[in-house]
Structure formats: C-alpha cells, structure tokens
Amino acid sequence: PSAHLQTTVTHRSPRVPEFSKDEVADHCEIHSCWIIVCDKVYDVTNFTREHPGGLDVIMEYAGRDATVAFMDKGHSKDAWIVLSGYYIGELVKKDRINK
Fold it and tell me: Where are the beta strands (DSSP E) in 1-99?
C-alpha cells in the first residue's frame, strides 16, 4: 500500500498597505492627490482632470476624508467602480471612522 502525502497549501493574501491620516494629508497637491472614502485610501492623481464634477471638487478634498461629500453627491455604481480602480490601501485602525 502506498502512503498518500497530503500537503496543505496556505495562500497568504498580500498585506494591504495602511496609511495614517497624516500620511494621506501629505498628498494634497495636483501632482499627488489622495483621498479617503469609507476608511479606504485612493490615489486619484491621474483622475483629477477627468472628474466629471471638475478638478476643483476633487482638489477641495485632496489629502482629506471625502466620504461625506462622495456619499452626499449620490455617486452612481459606475463611479464606485471607477473609484475602486484607484484604491491603494486602508486607513490605519486608529484613524478609521468604522473601527
């Protein structure tokens, strides 16, 4: 009788980068524009000029939490999909709204 070797493969998810609010705040310029929406961090630098609401709207929240503005505007499902393409990480736990 042959012995069957059973191997368990553990797939580790790549660690999601975490950023503090202070780190996000450093990215408040047109050449480096990060925003926070629902405790997630997005680098929207390459989207600022394409934003349908205009450059000024995004730049008002550059380096800051844009959750309320994003939610209040009633963005479409498509807007959420576009936003997800700019995702770069999460806020550190101590800075999150939803801890």
Answer: 18-19, 28-29, 32-37, 40-43, 87-91
Q: For residue range 26-38, what is the model confidence (pLDDT) as tens digits?
A: 999 999 999 999 9
**17-20: long-range pairs with CB below 8 Å, 24+:** 17/41, 17/88, 17/89, 17/90, 18/89, 18/90, 18/91, 18/92, 18/93, 19/88, 19/89, 19/90, 19/91, 19/92, 20/91, 20/92, 20/94, 20/95
List phi, psi (to 5°) of 34: -115, 145
Take residue 13 and report the two structure tokens written for it.
């998810």
The length of the chain in residues reads 99
CB of 51 closer than 8 Å to CB of 33: no
Q: 0.90 exceeded by the pTM?
A: no
d(CA 35, CA 77): 18
